[in-house]
TrEMBL record:
Keywords for the protein's UniProt record, in alphabetical order: ATP-binding, Kinase, Nucleotide-binding, Serine/threonine-protein kinase, Transferase
Reaction(s) catalysed (UniProt annotation): L-threonyl-[protein] + ATP = O-phospho-L-threonyl-[protein] + ADP + H(+); L-seryl-[protein] + ATP = O-phospho-L-seryl-[protein] + ADP + H(+)
Gene Ontology MF: a single term: protein serine/threonine kinase activity
Gene: Stkld1_1
EC number: 2.7.11.1
InterPro entries the record matches: ARM-like, ARM-type_fold
Entry protein name: Serine/threonine kinase-like domain-containing protein STKLD1
Native species: Copsychus sechellarum
PANTHER family named in the record: SERINE/THREONINE PROTEIN KINASE (PTHR24363), SERINE_THREONINE KINASE LIKE DOMAIN CONTAINING 1 (PTHR24363:SF0)
């Protein structure tokens, strides 16, 4: 009430946020802090020029959201909160350090389907792409932005088809630049999978994207989630074009089929990985020319192994 009575006075908002932050460590205060997210974001929007207030507000929201996620709660922030966060992104789009924190916040917010939909509605995707282009070197920003992209692109809505298509080269650039950083590569593979599911890639994208995804699998063989999402992305590409299937087969760095076999043997106890690999192989065998090559590489032996390992799946 104290904050709401004096929206225009920056000092009141700053003191209010600091005072609310003092309750963060008190578990019994958590249910009350949950009701304050709108007040905090509105204070940030009203005093958008004050970087100090933005940082304090963002830090507090991160604390509240972290506690919510720890307790298995999804915070479905409404459209007005999403709009406030977008204003903050636009105003401070040059401040790398603050954006790093803000993108982490957006990633946590987008874990909720409702909040992700609200972020999509207020038009945050072009801003995310602009941030990625500007800070392609920053692994923390790349990880967060790709995770947000995945959350937004995976929704059923196709309203942003043109915008999502423009995300393909940027997401590919993130993966290319961070191939050896497993965390970022995993996030970029997930985003590419969502974009491929929506049919956002053009004919000229299939071959280079398939090669890039194979590189990600080669570089990070131990990361089960990356392997799973990378294979699902490849399956989506193969479903769209035989070019992608041939790219897997004839990859200049070695047979993609051999790579698939190696990945399965590394993660033979992971049902998610096995399922993604089977889905990919099922898409590949739709093309007769490719299927003959798979036979020569004894893929039936691998399929039999998988069937024995997961007889009830």
């Amino acid at each position: 009430e104290f904050m709401q009575a004096s929206w225009d006075i920056e000092e009141v908002q700053a003191k209010g946020i600091k005072h609310l932050a003092s309750f963060v460590k008190d578990r019994s205060a958590f249910p009350y802090l949950l009701t304050c997210t709108e007040v905090i974001t509105l204070a940030m929007k009203t005093h958008i020029d004050s970087l100090d207030l933005q940082v304090e507000g963002c830090t507090l929201l991160l604390e509240i959201l972290s506690q919510a996620l720890e307790q298995g709660m999804m915070m479905a922030l409404d459209e007005s909160v999403a709009s406030c966060l977008l204003h903050t992104v636009r105003k401070h789009s040059e401040n790398e350090e603050f954006l790093s924190m803000l993108c982490t916040l957006l990633m946590m917010v987008s874990a909720s389907e409702v909040a992700a939909e609200n972020l999509r509605k207020v038009g945050i995707i072009p801003d995310l792409l602009s941030i990625l282009r500007r800070f392609l070197h920053n692994d923390k920003i790349c990880f967060s932005c790709c995770a947000v992209l995945w959350s937004l692109a995976v929704s059923e809505s196709n309203a942003d088809q043109a915008v999502l298509e423009s995300a393909v080269p940027v997401t590919s650039a993130v993966l290319q630049n961070h191939l050896q950083n497993g965390v970022v590569a995993e996030s970029a593979c997930s985003a590419l999978w969502a974009l491929a599911l929506h049919g956002c890639l053009s004919d000229s994208d299939y071959e280079p994207t398939a090669a890039l995804l194979l590189d990600a699998l080669r570089m990070n063989p131990e990361r089960a989630v990356l392997v799973k999402n990378g294979c699902l992305a490849l399956a989506s590409l193969v479903r769209l074009s035989e070019t992608a299937a041939l790219a897997i087969l004839l990859d200049s760095k070695g047979s993609g089929i051999e790579l698939i076999k190696d990945e399965y043997h590394l993660h033979f106890d992971e049902p998610g990985v096995a399922e993604a690999l089977c889905l990919l192989m099922n898409e590949i065998v739709q093309y007769e020319e490719v299927m003959l090559d798979m036979r020569s590489q004894k893929i039936e032996k691998l399929l039999s192994e998988i069937k024995l390992q997961f007889p009830f799946s």
